[in-house]
Amino acid sequence: MFDAICALINFIPDSISHVPNVLMFEDFLNLAMLLNYAELVLVVTPARYSSPCLVSFQQTVYQLPRQRSREIRCWLLENFRLTLDPPVQDGYNDDERFDALLLKSLLGQAHTLWASVKRRQELGVVGAKSSVGYREKQITPSQVLSAISQDLSDFPGFSMWKDELLKPAPTSYSWPAPPDASRYLIRRKV
Amino acid sequence: MRASFREFLETSKNVNSLDNPLSGGVPAPIQLATDLRAAVSAYEEFPTNIPVRIMNWGLLAKADAVHPPHVDRPGTCTWVAIEDGLKKWDLAFPPRGTEEDEIANPAAYAAEMADGRNYARGWKWYSVLLYPGSMLYVVIVPLQQFTQTHFCYRFMRPGTVHSVTTLQDCIALGGHFFSVPAIRHSVYSILHNFVGSHTITNVSMDNEQQMLLRIVLFWHKTMCEGSSAYLNQIEQLGQGRSFYWNV
Fold first, then answer.
1. Does residue B85 have a pLDDT over 70?
2. Which residues make Cβ contacts (< 8 Å) with residue A189, sequence separation at least 6?
3. B9 and chain A: CB distance < 8 Å anywhere?
4. B42 within domain boundaries
5. What residue of B is the nearest CA neighbor of A172?
6. Quick one: which of A10, A86, A180, B8 has the most CB atoms within 10 Å?
7. pLDDT tens track for B38-82
8. Is position B59 within any domain?
9. Based on the structure, what is the number of domains in chain B?
10. Which CATH number fits the domain that encloses residue B132?
11. DSSP classification of residue B220
12. pLDDT attached to residue A185
């Protein structure tokens, strides 16, 4: 049976690319969410909150992916623009929309995450825990807010975080929706 | 609790064991596993290890063992193949039309999911019978893309809510991986799991996040460092479809 399972695995056609085509919006979304994750990864890593710090936990592991993710953001903005089809008014022009929505998506996700941690009782869930001495404690909303502020403080545009917190938190982690009857297209800059 | 396989088979107790060294090195399907593709290269000082015990596993379950609604290890796609026995795998999906919103909504991964199966949110449940030689894998492509792709492995993308009933004593192999068409679902699932933790899943985040972060490095190498080649290739393909990138 073991051989049969290996054969089943080999039967799967080699049909997906392992690199996104950013001209396809669906592919771009996967890239954008991974870039956000590279910024928020330590916020959602329970070991980060443990005291004393676990020997196995090394924050330096996360620095290179974060640095590379920021370089990918710059590369995207250098080479592509985000347009609306058909063109409708959404408060941005084609030159500024991409940058603005990349930032809005990251800040919105961080806001939704923090708001959801605050709503745990209403949601009926027990959240992630960290070790404090020999005990485990639920990670608190204030710890999460502090982690977001600390980790994103050097992210370009993070000064908008204060304004973001004045708004209601987005209800989901998804990319900001386009105006009705319109859709996003990503185009090469010429 | 420790027991031999014989003791497991002979016991009359209802047992569901999720962490067994059965996998013997069977990796996730490399055709789908972007994390394994990314691990082919080294990236400066980033760790090169793969947490094999996390990503590959074996299941032992006695008949009538039931695993109530949950989502799997944070952010991962799942594959499972039956060696012996029978399992009923129940899978939940949000209503069409609101699918993307629901999957990204923290309220859909809460007590209502674990206790009420999200019926109140309009989710629908489907059952799959798994028997020796059958393999449930995994992922991936959102339904609206189905017509644009050659195939659709949709069952167990990251964050898929499911419950499992063992109908006959069962031995199964399986594993987890990260896959490019489902990366955003991986991220949503990790965020949900941080908020809902053990109310909605059976494991905590562990070293597998390195597998996901390594994909950032892989994409940086391909897209930014290989910018000219990458841009030429996507220009030729245009916006109609994903491309088959021979890397």
1. yes
2. A78, A79, A80, A81
3. no
4. no
5. B105
6. B8
7. 999 999 999 998 887 778 888 888 999 899 999 987 888 888 888
8. yes
9. 1
10. 2.60.120.650
11. I
12. 96
Q: Would you say B182 and B158 are in contact if contact means Cβ atoms under 8 Å apart?
A: yes
For residue B145, what is the nearest residue in chain A, using CA coordinates? A26
Share of chain B above pLDDT 70, in %: 83
Check residue B55 and give its pLDDT.
Answer: 80
* Span B163-180, pLDDT tens digits: 999 999 998 888 888 999
In chain B, residues 96-115 whose CB comes closer than 8 Å to chain A? 100-101, 104-107, 110-112, 115
A188 touches chain B (CB under 8 A): yes
- Residues in a beta bridge with B129: B88
Which residues are bridge partners to B87 per DSSP? B130, B166
Instruction: Copy the structure tokens of residue B131.
Output: 């028997």
Question: Nearest Cα to A32, choosing from B187, B51, B225, B208?
Answer: B187
Q: Which residues pair with B166 in a beta bridge?
A: B87
Query: Which of B190, B194, B211, B241 has the highest number of chain A CBs within 10 A, making it the mutation to test binding with A?
Result: B194
Encoded amino acid at A185, one letter = L
Q: Whole-angstrom Cα distance, residue A12 to residue B17?
A: 28
Would you state the pLDDT for residue B58? 84
Q: How far is A56 from chain B (nearest CA, A)?
A: 10
Chain A residues whose CB is inside 8 A of the B153 CB are 12
Nearest to A16 among B31, B173, B230 (CB): B31
pLDDT greater than 70 at residue A190: yes
Of all residues in chain B, the one with the smallest CA distance to A4 is B133
User: Distance (Å) from the C-alpha of residue B239 to the closest C-alpha of chain A?
Assistant: 5
Chain A residues near residue B133 by CB distance under 8 angstroms: 1, 4, 8
Where does residue B122 fall: left (phi above 0), alpha (psi -120 to 50 degrees), or beta otherwise? left
Of the pLDDT bands very low, low, confident and very high (cuts 50, 70, 90), residue B24 is low
Minimum CA–CA partner of A29 in chain B = B184
Cα–Cα dist A27/A101, whole Å? 16
pLDDT of residue A152: 97
Q: Does any CB of chain B come closer than 8 Å to the CB of residue A36?
A: yes
Interface check B25 vs A, CB under 8 A:
no
Task: Provide the residue range defining the domain that includes B142.
Answer: 5-29+55-205
Residues in Cβ contact with B151 at an 8 Å cutoff, skipping those fewer than 6 apart:
A13, A15
CB pair distance less than 8 Å for B205 and A45 = yes
